[in-house]
């Protein structure tokens, strides 16, 4: 059994296993030439993309603009499937169609939806247009399963086994001092969640709101302490019906160098997990400074 730290470190690899399985199963279907999958990143402004021809010892990903006018980005933005032969799609996506291989006869693009947000999309390129109805059904089923598995994988990365909505037992009540504190390493993330829950509970806020806030804190704080190798400072502000949480790491070379932050590795670490923050929070953001990075999220609260 993996301990909590191993599970957190291997979350991106776990997502790759899920995606590789989907790509392989769909590509094996008769009539399918190639399959691609895209996951929302950067609050929906761009997508991480990979495809069946990128499967190797590791799964290769690249970034694409979420606003490119192609079927995959269209479904990732709108949630509406795009299904048809290239001839039928030529009017709507002329540039996309003109760049397809002569062997491609039809395309199926469907969104990856969970119950809160669009995670991305799956696209299948068919060389046999008569298989369109059968393959469309299979792709839709795989998309539903993919959304479920990817959501579960992401949640497990930020909520280690044995913790969750019940990990409030160590909280001694919320005080002003508990609203600003230092977290040394990932082993203290659970205690930080308990402090946040205590603050909210003191003000009569519980249920889904505390669960969502705790998960957002867990994701951002885990990233801060694990991927900078430095402690982080947490500040919790509760004003009327709005929760504002700030996490500031003490930084190292990983976060100081813009080229490092924009690297594929950095995006793989931060990008997919931030889908959870993007889905659960009202809004979130970050700023980089010379000596570290500050990340924050806000959550609108409904009081009983």
Describe the structure in your own words:
The chain is α+β, with helices and mostly antiparallel strands and about 300 residues long. It has 2 domains: about 5-160, GAF domain (Beta-Lactamase); about 175-300, Heat Shock Protein 90, CATH 3.30.565.10. The chain has helices at about 5-10, 10-25, 70-80, 85-90, 95-100, 130-160, 190-200, 210-230, 255, 260, 265-270, 275-280; strands at about 30-40, 45-50, 60-65, 80-85, 105-115, 120-125, 180-185, 230-240, 240-250, 285-290, 290-300. The strands form 2 sheets. It has a 6-stranded antiparallel sheet, sandwiched between helices. It has a 5-stranded antiparallel sheet with strand order 7-8-9-11-10, covered by helices on one side. Strand 10 (about 285-290) and strand 11 form a beta hairpin. The longest helix is centred in the middle third of the chain and has 27 residues, at about 130-160.
Give me the Rg, rounded.
21 Å
State the assembly state of the protein chains.
Answer: single chain
Q: What is the N-to-C order of secondary-structure elements (H for helix, E for strand)?
A: HHEEEHEHHEEHEHHEEHHHHEE
Proportion of residues in extended strands: 25-35%
């Amino acid at each position: 059994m993996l301990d909590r730290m191993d599970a957190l470190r291997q979350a991106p690899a776990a997502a790759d296993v899920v995606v590789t399985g989907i790509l392989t199963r769909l590509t094996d279907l008769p009539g399918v030439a190639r399959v691609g999958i895209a996951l929302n990143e950067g609050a929906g402004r761009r997508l991480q993309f990979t495809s069946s021809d990128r499967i190797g010892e590791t799964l290769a990903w690249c970034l694409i603009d979420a606003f490119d006018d192609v079927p995959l980005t269209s479904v990732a933005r709108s949630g509406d499937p795009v299904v048809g032969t290239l001839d039928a799609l030529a009017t709507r996506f002329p540039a996309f169609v003109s760049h397809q291989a002569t062997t491609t006869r039809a395309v199926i693009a469907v969104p990856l939806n969970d119950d809160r947000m669009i995670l991305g999309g799956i696209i299948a390129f068919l060389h046999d247009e008569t298989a369109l109805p059968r393959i469309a059904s299979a792709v839709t089923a795989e998309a539903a399963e993919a959304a479920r598995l990817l959501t579960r994988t992401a949640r497990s990365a930020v909520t280690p086994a044995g913790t969750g909505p019940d990990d409030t037992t160590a909280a001694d009540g919320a005080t002003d001092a508990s609203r600003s504190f230092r977290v040394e390493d990932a082993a203290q993330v659970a205690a930080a969640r308990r402090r946040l829950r205590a603050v909210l509970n003191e003000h009569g806020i519980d249920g889904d709101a505390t669960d969502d806030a705790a998960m957002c804190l867990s994701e951002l704080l885990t990233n801060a302490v694990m991927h900078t190798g430095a402690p982080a400072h947490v500040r919790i502000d509760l004003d009327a019906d709005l929760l504002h949480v700030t996490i500031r790491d003490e930084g190292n070379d990983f976060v100081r160098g813009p080229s490092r932050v924009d690297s594929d590795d950095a995006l793989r670490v931060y990008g997919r997990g931030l889908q959870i923050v993007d889905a659960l929070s009202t809004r979130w953001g970050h700023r980089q400074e010379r000596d570290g990075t500050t990340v924050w999220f806000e959550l609108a609260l409904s009081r009983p």
